[in-house]
Amino acid sequence: MSSHGTPLPMTSRKCGPLKGQAHVPGDKSISHRSLILGAMAVGETRITGLLEGEDVLDTAKAMRAFGAEVIEHGGGEWSVHGVGVGGFAEPENVIDCGNSGTGVRLIMGAMSTTGISATFTGDASLNSRPMARITDPIALFGAQSYGRSGGRLPLTIVGAAEPVPVEYTTPMPSAQVKSAVLLAGLNAPGQTVVIEKEATRDHTERMLAGFGAEIVVEDVAEGHKITLTGQPELKPQTIVVPRDPSSAAFPVCAALIVEGSDVLVPNIGLNPTRAGLFTTLQEMGADLVFENMREEGGEPVADLRAKFSPDLKGIEVDPARAASMIDEYPVLSVVASYAQGDTVMRGVKELRVKESDRIDAMAKGLRANGIEVEEGDDWWIVKGRGHGKVAGGAEVDTVLDHRIAMSFAILGMASEKPVRLNDGGPIATSFPIFERLMADLGAQIERSNS
Ligand code: S3P
């Protein structure tokens, strides 16, 4: 079910070799940030390759509600006429961010230091996710928040009319929290400082520098220290959004487990704060090659070639890599099912508060399809059965989570019996062309219960 629709059951069955090129959509994280920073600049920002998934479209709508002019020109080309830092108008209605934690958290940060109020809501998944991680730091700037118990949405923020700058150490590895504080700091006078113990995706820092903000990133004893000078005039940019490594993960992982496959995924953003999955897959013995490494628009980019890898081995995934592959653990657990031996994933507590509790959702669905899984609060172990030995045959609950839905669609491509999804609708939040793209490669995913 999308945030606006009815459940969309799907069945994924064993397919022949996957072959060809997979042109995955634009990066979700960079797409959200392009629209939000574009809305905070003065003048016209041009964006090409924007992800036109529901999550990002909800952010586009939100930026319009805050007074920016956001125009779609077709074919992934968009422009944003920004209102300047501190220039947001008060929205006339509730801001519905659908399924998107990134959208709502970044926007809450950005508006929290302007003298306006806004009320935020989302779908059942988003309304169950923790928001205190944002309302706590924005309170330090002077913003007030009134939400449901546990700081959950729907939630109203009364922005700080006279914000003060803040020094904040993020209590968990979260680019969303870091980014919300930095966006809040944009409209506070003086220097806002964010310290993170572990590096998380740095698209906000890169983009703020691109828009002309004064931002300094240093390695210090406590970790990473980011210092932003407030109240800059952001200069509009031309942004080319690279293709999303988190979406590339699905055709790449599918190619590794489907016999005879050879898939090229061109133009993938390989920012080191995002690329942990690919290193992990190579450690497991994946036939994965980076071709044509280059830099585009301030982000490293390459073409990825993935081939069927019959001898995958379970490994202990380096927990230091968790933040750089946090969205990829669900599909990694699918590859781990087709590997020989245990894949051990530790230091992944954050997986329990994503669009769903992703450890729980994957463990339930994998077990139903014949894979043994052990789990604890911040760890899980998938007991791989090896190529050709995954039973399948069960229906899984995709719990309003796009990555859970796509991961189980991949599981079914090499399992003995088909895997059914109770609802493939959430896929449209981040990868609206998933079914067509996978079908073009040779996958067999049907919209039915058959
Ligand atoms: C995102 C950060 C990550 C990630 C999410 C996108 C971002 O969340 O899971 O899909 O764009 O900043 P956290 O920062 O909460 O770990």
Distance between the termini: 18 Å
Shape: globular
Beta-strand content estimate:
25-35%
Query: Main beta sheet: strand number and arrangement?
Result: 4 strands, mixed
Task: Give start-end ranges of low-pLDDT stretches.
Answer: none
Mean pLDDT: 96
Heterogens: shikimate-3-phosphate
**Helix tally?**
12
Percent of residues in helices: 25-40%
Radius of gyration (CA) equals 21 Å
Count the strands?
24
Strand order of the largest sheet: 22-23-1-24
The chain-level structural class is: alpha/beta
Give a structural overview.
- It is a single chain.
- The two termini are 18 Å apart.
- The protein is built from twelve helices and 24 strands.
- The chain has 450 residues and is an alpha/beta fold.
- The chain has a four-stranded mixed beta sheet. A four-stranded mixed beta sheet has the order 2-15-17-16. Strands 4-5-3-14 form a four-stranded mixed beta sheet, with helices on one face.
- Helix 1 runs parallel beside helix 6.
- Helices cover 28% and strands 28% of the residues.
- Bound molecules: shikimate-3-phosphate.
- Shikimate-3-phosphate binds next to helix 5.
